[in-house]
Amino acid sequence: MTNNIDFKGQDLRGRDFQGQILPGADFTGARIDSRADTDPITTGDKLLHTDFTDSDLTGATFANVRGDRALFTGCSAARANFTGADLTLSNFNDADLTDANFTGARIDGASFLGANITGAQFPGEPPATTI
After folding, report:
1. Are 111 and 131 in contact (CB under 8 A)?
2. What's the CATH code of the domain at 111?
3. pTM above 0.85, yes or no
4. In this structure, is residue 28 part of a structural domain?
5. Number of domains within the chain
6. Which domain holds residue 45?
């Protein structure tokens, strides 16, 4: 396991992170695209405290990841799949979450202020996006 890897601003399209444990990794401003044949973040990955601020996560798969306290601030995550993920205390402020799927995800204490959640699916009631 490697801690605090710096992926800031890197183009990570097509990179395979399957099975990686990346606590404290910083993806600030990174470009991460997901396609059916090359999902960069996959089931069971650990993304504790990971920073995806302003990253392009359109269509990415985060199913069943452990991503508590992750920062998704300002990211583009339209159509992203967060089913079953642990996103406790994560920050999605100002993120584009259009049509994202959070079914079965733990979002206790997560913040969605200013986020676009149009068409997104959540466990229970959708979170507040305004104060």
Report:
1. no
2. 2.160.20.80
3. no
4. yes
5. 1
6. 1-122
Rounded CA-CA distance 97/49 in Å is 19
The C-alpha atoms of residue 122 and residue 101 are separated, in whole angstroms, by 7
- Sequence-distant (6+) residues with CB within 8 A of 107 are 87, 88, 90, 122, 123, 127
Q: Which amino acid is at 60?
A: A
Please report whether residue 131 resides in a domain: no
Mind listing the pLDDT tens digit for each residue in 64-116? 888 888 899 999 999 999 999 999 999 999 999 999 999 999 999 999 999 99
Neighbours of 19 (CB within 10 A): 9
Q: Kindly report, residue by residue over 7-43, the tens digit of the pLDDT.
A: 888 887 777 766 666 777 777 777 765 544 445 555 4
- Strands, DSSP E only, in 39-110? none
